[in-house]
Amino acid sequence: MRLIHTADWHLGQTFYSHERSLEHQRFLDWLLATLEREQADVLLVAGDVFDTANPSSEAQRQLYGFLSAARRLDPAPQIVLTAGNHDSPRSSRGAVAAAHGDGCHRGRSRPAPRRRRDRSRPADRPVARP
Fold first, then answer.
1. At what angle do helices 21-38 and 57-71 cross, to 10 degrees?
2. What is the pLDDT of residue 3?
3. Residue ranges of domains in the chain
4. Higher per-residue confidence, 15 vs 84
5. What is the pLDDT of residues 12-64, one digit of tens each?
6. Are 50 and 86 in contact, with CB atoms under 8 Å apart?
7. Quick check: 85 and 48 in contact, CB under 8 A?
8. With 70 as the cut, is the pLDDT of residue 66 above it?
9. What phi, psi does 44 have (nearest 5°)?
10. DSSP state of 17
11. H or E element in which residue 81 lies
């Protein structure tokens, strides 16, 4: 299985007042060519696809265009998107819908379970005896 793992695209980000959409588009074009050249089975996008929870229409257009083009590759990779701290669940749902859900999956993040101290024994008493 060939898997390409990427993250932190931050589509829609500006650098001070410098618009970065051209840089982002060049990256997406490169990634599309890499998926095709390597014939990847899976593309994992591990969070922060967008730079804000409310991405601009341009940033959304870039992502949806990329997903649409990736789904037309032969063979088309399975695409797994997970939300990061800059993404909103709504924007990742929209991305999956834009790819028609065919081979495009949205990962769900869950908080790690909280570790609780075992209160049935004092903290200074060993768990096991030698």
1. 10
2. 95
3. 3-107
4. 15
5. 999 898 989 999 999 999 999 999 999 999 999 988 899 888 889 999 999 99
6. yes
7. yes
8. yes
9. -105, 120
10. T
11. strand 78-82
Please report the DSSP string for 37-75 in residue order.
HHT-SEEEEES-SBSSSS--HHHHHHHHHHHHHHHTSSS
Taking each helix axis as running N to C, give the angle between helix 57-71 and helix 89-98, from 0 to 180 degrees, rounded to the nearest 10: 40
Q: From CA 44, how far away is CA 4, in angstroms rounded?
A: 6
Which residues have C-beta within 8 Å of that of residue 67, sequence separation ≥ 6?
79, 95, 98, 99, 104
Measured CA to CA, the distance from residue 53 to residue 87 in angstroms comes to 5
Asked if residue 53 lies in contact with residue 86, where contact means CB atoms within 8 angstroms, the answer is yes
Structure tokens at 112: 């790690």
Residue at 91: amino acid letter: S
How is domain 3-107 classified at the CATH fold level? Purple Acid Phosphatase; chain A, domain 2 (3.60.21)
CA proximity to 82, closest of 52, 106, 53, 54: 106
pLDDT score of 130 more than 60: no
